[in-house]
Amino acid sequence: MVCVLLASALWIYHDYGTYEVFKDELDSKWGFLLHQHTDAAAAAPVWLGEFGTDADSLWWRYMLRYIEEKEIDFAYWPLNGQKRANSSEPDVYSLLNMDESTVRDDWKVHQLQHVINSVHGKKPHTVQPAPKSGADVIV
Fold this sequence. Notes:
The chain is of the alpha+beta class. A hairpin with a 6-residue loop joins strand 3 and strand 4.
């Protein structure tokens, strides 16, 4: 029985757990619209909006790799640390903690910065004071 379960788990991972399967699935759904498509008439702008995670999971790593390889523009969701306005419930997917000034998960910010820098060919981001307000901005 254990051998059957192990064999089933390996088969599922082999068929569904690889980056190639993940990439093929996204390509078949909407990735074919990207500018790398060989048929320029079928290409369209793609913007990936409101995606996020609370774990450094396989899905997360595959999605970041896909974004990087396909040079996809995106918006991470959410920035704010609370689930709803005026709520005391934290949003575990957020980039910031409830205080709205400290980073919730350093690993997430670093991985997003890596993708942004590789896609746009920029130097690493640095935090500098804003010219008039004094608030910190990422440049």
